[in-house]
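#struct-pred
JK: can someone run the complex with pyridoxal-5'-phosphate? inputs below
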Amino acid sequence: MRPRTLAHINLGALRHNLLAIKAMAPHSQLMAVVKANAYGHGLAGISKALQEADGCAVATVEEAATLRENGWQGRLLLLQGFADTSELDASIELNADVVLHQQSQLDLLANSGRKLTQAVWIKLETGMHRLGFELDQLPRLSQQLCANQVHVLTHFAEAEEKNSAAVQGQIFRFENTVHGLGYSKSMANSAAILNYPQSHADWVRSGLMVYGVSPLAEGTGKDLGLLPVMTFSSRLLAVKTCQAGDQVGYGSTYTCNDEMLIGTVAVGYGDGYPWQASSRSDGQTQVLIAGALCPIIGRVSMDMLAVDLRPVEELGIPVTEGETVILWGEGLPVEEVACSIGTIAYELLCGLSGRVKYLYE
Ligand SMILES: Cc1ncc(COP(=O)(O)O)c(C=O)c1O
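RT: done, structure tokens with the ligand placed:
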């Protein structure tokens, strides 16, 4: 049975992207960030294609367990560390490095009587104000953790901005604090790999680029030599001719200005295709059908959306029910879809629902 909605995951593209990122930061080790179910790509499904990474970073103990169950034996980092004794125990059992970012974790560790056997990554607060110890705490922490292999990391608030004074300030404060202490260091996410080579340090932590997507406001992954890993597609459920004045979809928000061929696509917000892509006066989101970009018309509903099929007709291609509709991926960059909706590619990729079928090859 052909699936209604399909996320085709190209593992060759993922391997290519890992190598491409390593070439961008040739003196650093690569931590592939695979949290949030590998940015919506399916953690179990991609786990066999990660060999080129020097480590993998996840947000939750469950994600760490999934990676281990699927054969990942390399370095594994829990980006939020542990928040209670069961998470602490799991991190030890899974041999997952932990981020330490606040005193309560050290108190929990001391009170638990457990001993961390894995490496720790001390997160320093340099300007993001999300997680991290204040810089002046580092000497005390290093004394306390002297038995462990210690790494230090920080995270940038606006690395997608070139020449940002804020990022430069974060790099300066971080380097100034850790200089000469001999710890392995990590600062850069995908955008910083591109915009701030001086932040590459010992480990870069890349998420979005692993999946072939650009973290920058302009351009796409292709411009960076990356390949899209996910192609999200559906198919045409119905093709019909509407007359001038006919209205399409909930709220009758779209009125045909002429006789026109329209298609009903078997995807909606119940699959994770955003309602915000509904047609608006200030911009249109498109899908790709038989090589033609077709605008969405009217509102996206739970299981369906409507498209203007005239661009396919103009190519002289007969369009029929069952035709594949690419929502993003190969031929239609997710960055462009996100931009047309006013969101970010991260949100679209992470948002696919459980009824989308995944195919890995
Ligand atoms: C601490 C940390 N490092 C690295 C990343 C990867 O970021 P990106 O996907 O922009 O490369 C994230 C993602 O949010 C993160 O939280």
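RT: quick notes.
The first strand starts at residue 6 and ends at 9.
The first helix runs from residue 11 to 24.
JK: thanks, will look after standup
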